[in-house]
Amino acid sequence: MDAVKRERRRIFSLALVMAFVSFSILSIAFYFLYEASLKDQQGRLLESVKSHARLIEQIGVMEEAEGLGAETAIDKTLAVLINSHSLYAGFGRTGEFTFGKREGDTIVFLLGHRHYDMQTPKPVPFNSGFAVPMQKALSGYSGPMLARDYRGKMVLAAVEPVMLGGRKFGMVAKIDMEEVREPFIKAVGIAVTSASIIILIGILVFLRVGGLLVTRIQESELGREEAEHVLRQSEERYRLLVENISDIVFLYRLLPEAGIEYISGSAEGVIGYSPEEMYANPDFGLMVVHPDDRQKLEALITGNADWEALLVLRWMHKDGHTVWIEQKSTPIYNEQGELSAIHGIARDVTARVLAEYELKRTVLALRILSECNAALISIAGEKELLEAVCKSLVETGGYLLAWVGLVAEDEVKSVRPAASAGKDEGYLDVINISLADPERSKGPTGVALKTGIASKVDDIATDERFVPWRDEALKRGYRSSVALPMEYGGKVMGALNIYAARPYAFSVGEIAPFQELANDLAFGLNRLKERKEKELADKALVERLRMEQMVVELSRLFASSSEVDLNRMLEVIGKGVNANRAYIFRLRESGTVMDNTHEWCKPGTEPQIENLQGLEASVIPWWMAKLNWNEDIVISDVDTLSDEASAEKAILQPQHIKSLIVVPVNNRENRLTGFMGFDDTENRREWRPEDSRLLRIAAEMLSVHFARTESEKLLRESELRFRSVTETATDAIISADHEQRIITWNPGATRIFGYTEEEMLGTPLPNLIPDLFSPKHVAGVVEREKNGSFNKRHLIAQIVELNGKNKAGDLFRAEVSISSWEVGSKKYYSLIIRDVTRRKKQEEELKRSNEELKRAVATIEQSQMLLLRSEKLASVGTLSAGVAHEILNPLNIIGTITQLMLMEEKRKAEKENLEEIMVQIQRAAKITNNLKLFARQRKMEIKPVDINAMFDHTIALLEHDLNLDNITVERDFTPGLPMVSADEDQLTQVALNLLTNSRDAMKLRRKGTITITTSPAADGGVDIRFCDTGPGIPKEIIGKIFDPFFTTKEPGKGTGLGLSVTYRIIEEHNGSIRVESLEGVGTCFIIHLPKGGEKLPDARNT
């Protein structure tokens, strides 16, 4: 009996030890699972807070790049952050993001809390022991931590400092430890309960079996066979339990010889081998493990492994694919202490491992996308941008090779590698991809370029599409690849190619962000191209404005006075084109000799004016022939002058002149009177057309100046001659008595009036005055007699110009000086009369010349204004494209995150908020796409268009909606209108814009009429009047309605682009559009479309 009791105590103790060991293993397993989950949670929080911090900093940088001050940029960035935070409560049940700053010794939270003080969070003392994560972030710490938050609760947090405009902020992502631990506590409870039940059943079974064994010992001699039968039944029940669980239970024997002692039947469903096949192969335990993981198994066998750790291995399925196994092994030692066997439980975790891998690759792809989008913003060169993207894919993504191929403009449409990074080893030099060759374009790169769809090769070693490049690729270790088309504006401009070292490396989740990267790259290249084109256009505009300013300055010089500073004029044009010398040559009266009359020299350039006097024109025959033919002389390199200009070359080279421009100066009869030009004595240069044009304008102004100077010279000579005539009595000098009878008459008067002295003596003076002015003269004399003075309004008593009448009755202009004197009591008058008819004609001619010059200046200034307006509109379009794309990227990211959150189980209120976010994202995307539509330049498809039919079709599209608003459309179409050459789709857009605007204007009145009138135009085109009975347009804004983004509609009802697009379309068709409006009556748009391509004047408003 004592032996039986001892056996029973031993069996009971063994059962307790088994229970203790089981609970210990369970506790250790949960501890490690908890630690692993906690680290994973920390990693996700840290990655999330870092990405949010960098995104906020990038938004701040973009705001500062808009030209805003640092404080304004910070305010706008915080406004965007606060608005976004208000739409997102947080993650999980207690998770939230906080954002704050330090003010003195307190922490100020800038975002609302999730738990209390929600909208107006209170400041927290910096060293209070509360809000420790934010305190660490503001102190510059970055990383995960366990600490107390602003409520004093223990949280798992990730902190990251944020820099905005040079100021330090802190960002924290946190979640309550209660929520982190809650699933593990529940799992522990369930596991402990389940384990307790299983262990209890096992103990009962064990005790039952043990009891039977004791009974058998006690009754060994009476029932050994019965006891053995009971034992076999027990073993069978245990085996039945093991065989019916999904996990694999195995016993691997090491001594005396290796082999599988036992493995449960569930293994066949996991790796495809039956237990019998495994038992038959002594090396199966090693063979089934993937070659790269066998060292882990060997570590177990040699006893160098951690038996408490879960081991993840790859087992090879019978059909060849890989199965990921997680196993827990327990060593079994023999009596000598040697490891004799390994007992373990294994579980198929393939789905989990692949999901984790897929998630990691997708996150990595998104990280690469973020890095490359940052490069798109910061890098200004095409090659640098492409190389940065390839480098990011190789260094951050871990791929073997990344390269960008662009389609060359050659006959075979070869694909030219534009940039690459990674393991190339000459591969790109030998691939020779050609879209025109079916064999060499069937690979992923060719397919992506031809179809515009991403193409991948999962295994280069077996895929037939990769045959032309397979050997070279495998030689360098490439096993899989993907080609992503770079598409922008409906055009594929190239392909982004990525190569990996393992087969099946590219999943759908990974390809999606890479495709977005490729499209962003296409946009970036297009933006760089547009930026370069804009820089060239801006440079041309600046140069044009500079030229026009010089023209204006020259105009002012010539218009300011008769004394023009010609040296200053030469300085203006010389500096304007960066010449070394500018000069004027004038031909003498003979036309065969010339003199350098004026010269300007750049500092450091030797003047030549003294050496260039009295030159014979015959020494430069080629030069003079071109000038006499009114041709410009433009020489880029004097050394390359032809033999026919050898004489000129011999004169220019000693003066060290490298290149020059010379234009003729002609008189009004278009006869050569000289020339002007400028030299470059330092460089050979290609002169621009603008340089010649500037010199031509200056030459024309100089011609006008010389003509005016000649006229003034003639006028001075005329005056001098008249003075001489006065002295020699060639001017009319007439005297009259108090009765206005002529008493003296000189030969000059005879010459002017035609009367002889005998004919005029004693005749009334008014006979010389035209009948129209004679009464005024008499009235002046009467007033003088009466008051002793003349009224200045009368023609006498002044030096005046008036009309005279000669003997033939002809009128002429004369300058008259009247004076009076008294002899005794009688008054006498003297008149000095000069015929100024010729001078007046010259002055009128000079005045007309000045008026023409002023009109020319006004035309130049008007052209400058129109050019600036056009450039401004083009700049608005370009900006809209860039902004639209930069807005769509974050909108896509926000939309993706929102859709992922919608896929999770949410409370009804949270789901409604997320759905509202999606609605607002779609609305923002629609507005942004309208901006892209405004900015997009599309090639017009010109064809004959029937205007009446086009309007009929457009009205039919909207007539139902118009009728619902009680708006009628009246057609007043002229039959048989001529066809116009136009883009019908764009004209339909014009009609839709005008119909929609009229409908919106009359909607509130619930009644209205739209009248459309068409008629033929005088130039063979078509005139269109589009009138409505709406409220009309106020006068103060009618001049702005065609400006981009100007709208009178309520916020959210319009973008202000409709009429801008309409104006641009009409302008591109060389037509005109103007508006007439009367408040309270209605508005009319008057459109003219020419039949052909003639350019019409701008007439936007009346």
Q: Which short descriptors sum up this protein?
A:
alpha+beta, 48% helix, Beta-Lactamase, six-stranded antiparallel β-sheet, 1102 residues
Describe the fold and architecture.
- With 1102 residues, the protein is of the alpha+beta class.
- The protein is 48% helix and 22% strand.
- Helix 4 (177-218) packs antiparallel against helix 5 (220-243).
- It is elongated.
- The model is unreliable at 790-795 and 1093-1102 (pLDDT under 50).
Number of helices: 27
**pLDDT below 50 for ≥5 consecutive residues: which ranges?**
790-795, 1093-1102
Shape: elongated
- Second CATH tier, the architecture of the largest domain: 2-Layer Sandwich
Looking at CATH, which topology of the largest domain would you report? Beta-Lactamase
Give the C-level CATH assignment of the largest domain: Alpha Beta
- The gyration radius over C-alpha positions equals 50 Å
Q: Average pLDDT across residues?
A: 78
Q: Largest sheet, described in full?
A: 6 strands, antiparallel
Range of strand content: 15-25%
Please tell me the total number of domains: 7
Sheet with most strands: strand arrangement: 3-2-1-6-5-4
Task: State the distance separating the first and last CA atoms.
Answer: 126 Å
Total number of strands: 34
Counting helices, strands and paired strands, the structural category is alpha+beta
Helix content: 40-55%
